[in-house]
Amino acid sequence: MTVNAPIDMEAFQNAIQAWFADVTGLETIWRNQSAPQPEYPFAGLAILSGPEPSAPQWEQRFDTDPLRPAGEEVRISVGVPCRFTISCQVYVDIPDARNPELNATAYMIRAQSSLSLPSVLASLHAVGISVERPGTVQNLDEVIEDSFVSRAAMDAVLGATLTLEEFTGFVSKVKVKSDNLGIDATLGDV
């Protein structure tokens, strides 16, 4: 039996990438891509963990529709809220000390703060993503080869829901017979 994916990871990742690129104005990539590094400044994202279910058991729901094909009248839906931790990093080539708005930390603070804006929350919510907690901005400035690179990071904890469904039929007619009880009946659709 093949089971469908419990979450549309493409839509999930596209929404996160669009959010980060839109609020920072930076070219934003997933760090596990096999593509050349973009020109500075740029941002890189990675899913550090998740999905991590927020509850020990999945909720089950049942609904019946007699108009579905025979054997598929009953839909069984299961779901559980979960969280993902997304690592967000910004890389800025030799920053201009005269303009602190052009360093990696400034870009990251924009991204962190934007997770409180109703428009950002609505666009993420449209694809089933909630913001549980924007992380702390970390300054990771470093020297790479012989140049100073401004780098900042933040881990954002985002919520989503894992859902699966399957279909089964139901018994529409039952024959009950007991000589001891004197029962001989057909129950259900007759």
Your description of this structure?
Helix content is 18%, strand content 44%. The chain has helices at 9-24, 104-114, 118-125; strands at 27-30, 42-53, 59-64, 74-92, 130-133, 138-139, 142-144, 147-168, 173-178, 183-188. The mean pLDDT is 89. The protein has one domain (9-188). The longest helix is centred in the N-terminal third of the chain and has 16 residues, at 9-24. The chain is built from three helices and ten strands, in the order αββββααββββββ. The protein has 190 residues and is α+β, with helices and mostly antiparallel strands.
In short:
The protein has 190 residues and is α+β, with helices and mostly antiparallel strands. It has helices at residues 9-24, 104-114, 118-125; strands at residues 27-30, 42-53, 59-64, 74-92, 130-133, 138-139, 142-144, 147-168, 173-178, 183-188. Helices cover 18% and strands 44% of the residues.
Describe the protein's topology:
Elements: H1 9-24, E1 27-30, E2 42-53, E3 59-64, E4 74-92, H2 104-114, H3 118-125, E5 130-133, E6 138-139, E7 142-144, E8 147-168, E9 173-178, E10 183-188
Parallel strand pairs: 1-2
Antiparallel strand pairs: 2-4, 3-4, 4-8, 5-8, 6-8, 7-8, 9-10
- Helical content band: 10-25%
| Gross geometry | rod-shaped
Mean pLDDT: 89
Give the helix/strand class. alpha+beta
